[in-house]
Amino acid sequence: MNVQVILNEDLPNLGRPGDVVRVRAGYARNYLLPRKLALEANSRNIRVFEHQKRLAMGKREALRMQAMTEKEKIESLHLTLAAHAGEEGKLFGSVTNLDLERALHQRGFTVDRRRILLAEPIKQLGDYSVTVRLQPEVDANLKFSVTAATD
Question: What are the structural domains, with CATH classification, of the chain?
């Protein structure tokens, strides 16, 4: 027997928050409902969830607008990171997303290092560009240079 539930969380292969989905009764009763991952889809819960969804949309739009202004600031920025390097431009160590997070923090930006999408650590001197995911639909392109440190 299947029942309808309203999802509270983003669940892979099932849906996003606010989606009304049909699941097996045992899955809903034993897993989704006790863990507060979903609500029973009755008329009252649907009304309450629609109201919460409207409020969340307003907040989400405000966060998106804030992220857009931050995106413009980050994209106009060009960071220079100094690192110890050998003769041929090969770094002793590497530049990671943690280093980029610290450099952005010094400039007044609060960006979690996990949102800096660096494919692999940088081990050479030069100019680079990485994507910074500010919001799920807002990505900024950060340009930076890695130069040899002078002691």
Answer: 2-63 (3.40.5.10), 68-148 (3.10.430.100)
Q: pLDDT per residue over 59-88, tens digit each?
A: 888 989 999 999 999 999 999 999 999 888
**DSSP letters for 77-141:** -EEEEEE-B-TTSEEEEEE-HHHHHHHHHHTT----GGGEE-SS-EEE-EEEEEEEEEETTEEEE
Contact 106/124 with Cβ under 8 angstroms?
no
- Do the Cβ atoms of 89 and 124 come closer than 8 Å? yes
Rounded (5°) CA angle 123-78-138: 95
Longest Cα–Cα distance in the chain: 72
**Partners of residue 3 on adjacent β-strands:** 23
Per-residue pLDDT band for 151 (boundaries 50, 70, 90) equals low
